[in-house]
Every structure is written in structure tokens, then in C-alpha cells.
Write a structure and sequence with these properties.
2 copies of one chain form a homodimer. With 308 residues, the first copy, chain A, is of the alpha+beta class. Chain A is built from 9 helices and 10 strands.
């Protein structure tokens, strides 16, 4: 299959416009807090130009404790060991990667954390797209989980009836903490290598990125609106802080995106902006039988189908 | 070289007695808080007996926010990939590991965090000892760093004049966060594979473990005594919480001990007891030029020789 013209440039432009769209919509829920922007450049290993990005962070809002939306378009040489992991050759190989990645940590434990990422990658002669979005509630509202998944399924179905069930399953498998025997959250979709190994049109795949990126606010913001006025106790906030520890464990122990960034000389503060602002670890925390806390954990240990 | 009789049992007994000694001495600094004990067993992969341990945790003291001292003696089968990393054969191989491991997180940012571990390992036909201890200050007091290293050097010198310089260097190299270009703290000593590849007597190496284990309280507690009354500000506490984030990053991204535990089916709560109780991550935190915070970071970026 031949690569459509200007794909890397068009992908990069798309991700930048998704970033702008999402930040503007998140700001609309904040009376005064606004995103700050950090434009950065990335020197490559030989001191040349390795691309760069734009990191946008909103912290200390009334709803959002920390929301980070990062755009990047970087090129360089990927170390052999890591290239092999991605299915590339076992040698140092040139790469280009562009994408937008976001993590939103609200104050209220009644509002779920969310993460999303859409990206385009060139590794040697191969190129593909990947991405997804997922939801990490602290207190489970089934209608929120159903809403999040329904919007995703709607977008997927327009592209292929196979996408949603396949990518939903991949998401549950990817965001899994084997040492905890739990998923990180109640899932969403996750896809990778789309357009590389299969007879999938790269152009259509870029359009899939587009549709998902612009549907994201519709997926998440109605949930925020619905839960932002819900009162919560100190104890419930404490449970959120403990659960955030699992988020950190996943991101540092297992997340390929984090490891990719750190091993290819990415910008540390942009990679680790995914980490929650305040996190607790207790030794052997317990939850009451039949409590909402226990229900959440049970749900994470037994992934469900949220939409048919 | 032949293995001395009963080495595994005597190592295990030694580590247990070191645990008892250290816990009693830490408690002597706490008016009322006491260690709680969790005895646990570890089923092996086939459901048989895989050993166990005793985890002791003191939390919410007046000096110590969280102190964990874990003893374990476990046996099982190490996955091929991990065995190869440890220099073993590239196949599943039986192992036995016993040791004591501790991490102490004080409330006050003026008192450093410390970590220590001494262990004995059998992997297939090979056996060796490893261990070390290191100090992670938030505000640097040079005399504390000198004291900690002096005690270590004293113990090392009794065994071999080569030990301290070699193991001090190994410690700086091991506790290094490449993505931050910093060491985790101001070091200590770190040794591994002692008695395996070299003409080192295993019996003498066990004695080295013994001497280090029983010198630990002398290394650390005078520092706690000296700093526990030092007043500190909210801002200084905040700096400690941010620096604890680096501690988490090291332990989850790089620490071999953590990965060993997670990959060999260790007890999760005992492995992750090393994580600090409360941790902050800010995006792009800054420190003032010439401040004590900057001095600390500079020191971590340029490891020093603390004793001659």
C-alpha cells in the first residue's frame, strides 16, 4: 500500500486542531482558570532539530484539579531494543511520531478521570495510526459508563462494525494492572498499528482519528456537567487519592506511551503530566463489603460490556 | 566454591533478627506508635508452599509517617526472561530468596527518607548476597550525609578496603533516574552478586550482611534525633511531597527489587510498602536560584564523595 501524500503533515495539523478544540471546550466549564501553553523543541541525539510540541496545562480550576493536553510532532532515531518491541527491525531506526494526548484529573471523586490519545507513527518504512480513550471513575455511575461507551461505539460503527467490539476488548487488555488484577478504569477503546499490518486505508484511518478526536468532548463533558454538583465526603475524596495511586502504578510500570517517551528522549514534563497532582498510598487499605468502593473494585476486576 | 552448610537457613534467621532489632530501635523514637505485624504465606505457582514473610508497618507516628520493614523467605520458579536478566540461564529456574527490606518516610522534610535491604539469593546452582542502604534527604545537611557514609565506610573497611569505594559508586549508579538526570538521594552503598562471580567467601559475605544490618540504626537514627525538632514551613513540606514523586518514579520505573517482586508473584502490599504515603506531582515545578532546594537538586545531579 502506498502512503497518501502529506500524511504526516496532515496528521500533525489534525492533532493540533483537536488540541485547540478540546482545550476550548474544557475551559468553557471553568469560570476563570485557563490553559497555559508551553511550546517546546526537542533536540535530536546529534543536537539537530528533533521536532517539538505544545503542552497545555490547566491547574487549580474549580472543576479540574489538573488537565493536561499535549500535542507533539517529533522525529529521531529509535533505539533498537524499543523498535523491536514495536515490531520494527532490531536496529536503530528513524521514526516520526505526532499525536495529541490528554489526561484530566478533576477534584471531585464523583467525576471520573479520563485519558485520550490519537497518534500517527512512522518507523523505518512502516506507518500506522493508534489511539483511544478511556474512563477511570472513582465512584461508578453506570449511566456515565454507558454514555462514554455509546459515543465511542457511534463513531466506531461509522467506520467499521468490527471496530468497537475489537477496540473495546483491546482497551480492557491494555489498561490492565496484572499485579492488582484490575483494569485501570472502565475502559473505552484502544487501537494500534491501524493501517500497517492490515488492508486498512490510511486515509480512512486518519479520518477515524479525526472523528474520535472531535467526538471526545461529547463523550466526556456531559458526565462532568452531570457530576460536578454532587456532594462528596472526606472519606470519598480519600478513596480517590488512593485509587490515583493505581493510575500512577499503571503509567510508570506498564504504559507503553510513557516508556516510549522516556526512551526516545521525549520532554519529561509533558510525558509525566499524566500523573495525578496528589496521590496517597496506604498499606493494605480495605473497603467495606457492599460499599460503592467495593463495587468499583469488583467492576475493575470483571470488565463489563457497557453497550450492545 | 562449595556453599557453607545451612547458609540459606542462617541467612533467613539473620535477616529476621535484623528486622526485630531495627523495629525495636525505631519504636524507641515514638512515644506511642508501634509496628503492626502481618505474617503472610506465598502460594507457589502450583498451589504449593512458596514460603512467606513478616511485614511490619508503623504508620501515623509522631516522627515517622510510614515505616515499613519487611522480612521474607520465598521460593519458586523464576520466569526465564527475568532469570536471564539476573545472569541465570534463559529458562525457568528454581530460586530461593530471603532478605529484609525497609523504607522509612518521616513527616518532617528535614529528616531524610532512608532505604535498606540485605538479601541472599539462590538461582539454579548459583548463590550470592546483595544489599545496601541509602539516604534521600529533602533538605541537605552535609554532616548527616557524612555521618551516614562514615558508618557505612567503617563497616565496609573491616571486610575489605575495596568495598566502600566500589559499593558507594555502584549505589550512585544504581539509584539513578536517567529521565531526571539525578540520583534518587545522596547514596550509600549497593552491592550485588557478592560470592557468586568472585573469589569471595560466602561465609564472610553473610557476616558482612550481619555487620551492615546491625549498624543500620547507628547510621540513621542519630540523624533523626538531630533533625526531628527542626521547624519547617508549609513550602518546605510541599517540596518534600514533590521530591517523593521522584522516589515513586524510581521505584516503579527502574527498581530491580520491585520488578523482581512483581514478576515472581510476590506479595504486592509488601513490595509497594516502599511508596510514600502522600505524593505530589506538579507540572514544571521550579526552585529559586541559590535556594536550599536548588542546592539539593545540584547535589543529586553531581554525586559527591562524602568521606575519604
Amino acid at each position: 500500500m502506498t502512503t497518501p501524500p502529506n500524511l504526516s503533515q496532515r496528521a500533525s495539523d489534525l492533532y493540533k486542531s483537536i488540541q485547540t478544540h478540546i482545550c476550548a471546550n474544557l475551559e468553557s466549564l471553568e469560570p476563570t482558570a485557563r490553559f497555559k501553553s508551553d511550546e517546546w523543541e526537542r533536540p535530536d541525539a546529534k543536537g539537530g532539530h528533533g521536532g517539538g510540541g505544545l503542552t497545555r496545562i490547566l491547574s487549580g480550576g474549580t472543576v479540574f484539579e489538573k488537565a493536561g493536553v499535549n500535542f507533539s510532532a517529533v522525529r529521531g532515531t529509535m533505539p533498537a531494543a524499543f523498535a523491536a518491541k514495536l515490531g520494527g527491525p532490531s536496529e536503530d531506526v528513524p521514526f516520526f511520531a505526532t499525536g495529541v494526548s490528554l489526561v484530566i484529573h478533576p477534584y471531585s471523586p464523583m467525576i471520573p478521570t479520563t485519558h485520550a490519545n490519537w497518534r500517527y507513527l512512522e518507523l523505518g518504512n512502516a506507518c500506522w495510526l493508534g489511539g483511544g480513550s478511556d474512563l477511570t471513575p472513582y465512584y461508578l455511575y453506570e449511566e456515565d459508563a454507558v454514555h462514554f461507551h455509546s459515543v465511542l461505539k457511534g463513531v466506531c460503527d461509522k467506520h467499521s462494525p468490527e471496530y468497537y467490539p475489537r477496540f473495546k476488548k483491546a482497551c480492557d487488555e491494555y489498561f490492565y494492572l496484572p499485579h492488582r488484577k484490575e483494569t485501570r478504569g472502565i475502559g473505552g477503546i484502544f487501537y494500534d498499528y491501524l493501517g500497517r499490518d492490515e488492508k486498512v486505508d490510511l486515509e480512512a484511518t486518519l479520518k477515524f482519528s479525526h472523528d474520535l478526536g472531535f467526538a471526545f468532548t461529547e463523550q466526556y463533558l456531559p458526565i462532568v456537567e452531570r457530576r460536578k454538583g454532587t456532594p462528596y465526603t472526606e472519606k470519598e475524596k480519600g478513596f480517590q487519592l488512593l485509587r490515583r495511586g493505581r493510575y500512577v502504578e499503571f503509567n510508570l510500570l506498564y504504559d507503553r506511551g510513557t516508556h516510549f517517551g522516556l526512551q526516545t528522549g521525549g520532554r519529561i514534563e509533558s510525558i509525566l503530566m499524566s500523573l495525578p497532582p496528589i496521590v496517597h498510598w496506604d498499606y493494605c487499605p480495605t473497603v467495606e463489603e457492599g460499599s460503592r468502593e467495593e463495587l468499583l473494585i469488583q467492576t475493575l476486576m470483571n470488565p463489563r460490556e457497557w453497550v450492545k
